[in-house]
Design goal:
By secondary structure, the chain is of the alpha/beta class. The protein contains nine helices and eight strands.
Length: about 260
């Protein structure tokens, strides 16, 4: 039977105003030997970065580290486990993500429901309801048959949806068809595109001596007034790199 350490601390910056990593360090210094990161308003990228840092601190102190609600982030951060609330993933689904070696924490209400209603299973809700626009099994089967047909197999959903619309048929949105492809392993490998090399004609100027090819440029020269510049028109001989002519002007003049 797994037993929690005596001091289990919640790392929640909303209660303290501190960054989760700084808060975790203070909690470990105070004797906490199990930390649970709960940072609900933060984007997943920030939660993952904080989780990785806290995991290093926790393991260095010999403490356990759990991530709140997100089994995927717990795996990516190499945490010791995850804590699931009533509206989070069902226990079986979370275990499939976590694997056999990580801890799954549950609230006391979940344990009480298990004892009072053992026939209900884990009692975690997961998604509250099936989306009203979700495909029925028959509609999903029709999408699969179209994706596997010889006529449409080479098309991506982005190409397939408008082509079917031109034919007067709508099966599902692009995103839904992409999900069906992933679910049934129908994503086609990207084919290497053969590109034809096109040689474009260009004008070549070649100098074999001085004064055969000149080049010119405009350089902005700052003045004592901020944002006001003078323009230096410079002509240079390509062969000798000598300045052939120059002029400073206060504005752009096509005749310069």
């Amino acid at each position: 039977m797994f037993r929690l350490p005596r001091l289990y601390a919640i790392v929640d910056p909303l209660d303290t105003g501190q960054h989760p990593v700084a808060l975790a360090e203070a909690l470990l210094a105070g004797g906490a030997r199990c930390l649970q990161l709960r940072w609900k308003p933060a984007p997943p990228r920030d939660v993952l970065e904080a989780a990785r840092a806290i995991r290093l601190l926790a393991h260095a102190a010999g403490a356990l580290f759990l991530v709140n609600d997100r089994p995927d982030l717990a795996v990516l951060a190499a945490a010791d486990g995850v804590h699931l609330g009533q509206d989070d993933l069902p226990l079986a689904a979370a275990r499939r993500v976590l694997g056999p070696g990580r801890v799954v924490g549950l609230s006391m209400r979940t344990i009480e429901r298990w004892r009072n209603e053992p026939e209900r299973g884990d009692g975690l809700r997961g998604p509250h309801h099936r989306p009203h626009n979700a495909l029925s099994p028959a509609e999903e089967g029709q999408v699969v048959s179209v994706l596997t047909s010889s006529r449409y197999a080479g098309l991506s959903p982005k190409q397939l949806v408008p082509q079917l619309a031109d034919e007067g048929l709508y099966l599902a949105s692009e995103s839904t068809i992409y999900r069906v492809q992933r679910r049934y392993g129908l994503r086609a490998k990207k084919r290497a595109q053969s590109r034809t090399h096109v040689t474009r004609a260009c004008t070549i100027h070649r100098a074999t001596g001085p004064n055969q090819v000149w080049s010119w440029d405009i350089t902005l020269l700052p003045t004592t007034v901020r944002g006001v510049y003078l323009r230096l028109y410079l002509v240079m001989d390509v062969w000798s790199r000598r300045i052939v002519g120059w002029r400073v002007s206060g504005n752009v003049n096509p005749q310069n």
